[in-house]
Amino acid sequence: MAKKSSVEKNNHRKELVKRFAAKRKALLATANNEGLEMEERFEARLKLAELPRNSSATRVRNRCGITGRPRAFYRKMGISRVALRELGNRGLIPGLVKSSW
């Protein structure tokens, strides 16, 4: 199990990303629009820098939904390899068969 504080911090980041997504998208569109004057684009960049750092989507870490493990994460299932193996051995994931040769 991951530390509860790490998991909660990541959940807080996800909430911030959702809350500021529209504002961040609009500011980025303004800042990257080359048809606008340089001052407008610069002001948009300054406003973008004033937003919380944790509202950026790149700050969110993929974590296992069961254990909170940050590494070896399978996006398709939303769990780590350790949890996948454990659930597979118990027969709780349909279609997953343990390999042997």
UniProtKB/TrEMBL annotation:
SUPFAM superfamilies: Glucocorticoid receptor-like (DNA-binding domain). Gene3D superfamilies: 1.10.287.1480. InterPro entries: Ribosomal_uS14, Ribosomal_uS14_bac/plastid, Ribosomal_uS14_CS. GO terms for molecular function: rRNA binding; structural constituent of ribosome. It comes from the Bacteria. GO terms for cellular component: cytoplasm; small ribosomal subunit. Keywords: Plasmid, Ribonucleoprotein, Ribosomal protein, RNA-binding, rRNA-binding. PROSITE patterns: RIBOSOMAL_S14 (PS00527). GO terms for biological process: translation. Part of the 30S ribosomal subunit. Contacts proteins S3 and S10. Binds 16S rRNA, required for the assembly of 30S particles and may also be responsible for determining the conformation of the 16S rRNA at the A site. Belongs to the universal ribosomal protein uS14 family. NCBIfam families: PRK08881.1. This is Small ribosomal subunit protein uS14. It comes from Methylobacterium bullatum.
